[in-house]
Amino acid sequence: MSLHSAWLTPQSVFLLSKSEPKPVTISVSSRVRASADVPDFLSADWLESRRKRPFGPRLNFSAEEAVHCQLDALKYNDQPRPDYGIEVMYRFAGFDPFERSTYFGPFFDLGQFERFRRIFHHSTYRVLLGHKERKILSSLFVKENRYKQRVWIRGSRPEEEEIFQFTMVQRVGGSWDGYWLTESLLHDGDAFAGGLAY
């Protein structure tokens, strides 16, 4: 019986014994101690961390709000960690990572985040990172699910001003149904005149 006593409950001990039932005492402190050593499946702050999902497209965002959120992320690019604003832009990007994309104008392979990040650090697009001021020049719904917005940006460096055009597309069907994603972010002018090693 000592071999199987680890599996037996107090009720089963009572049923197996032929003599009078004797009160069985089980140390509660040993049970508590044993269960304290076993980690819980979910951490204590699981619910709070679940509410803090990575920032990106939301179903309730309008096209204007989606552009505004992306520009805010780029303005505070290095908060809470370096290039977090570019990560947000990558989450909003509506291109297929397995195909070459015209997100920045010319066809680029942007499937890897690092290539996407390098273009933002290029001299033309770096104006967006940590910019000081911006002004919406024009906004237009080209179609029901396509929106364009031109934005003037004053960068953090002296005499750094550029104009960019966001093209937002609202997806229809699939897992992104109803979300506004960025189809392209174009510079007004020849952004890659000097070439780009991405």
UniProtKB/TrEMBL annotation:
Keywords: DNA-directed RNA polymerase, Transcription. The keyword Transcription applies. This is DNA-directed RNA polymerase subunit beta.
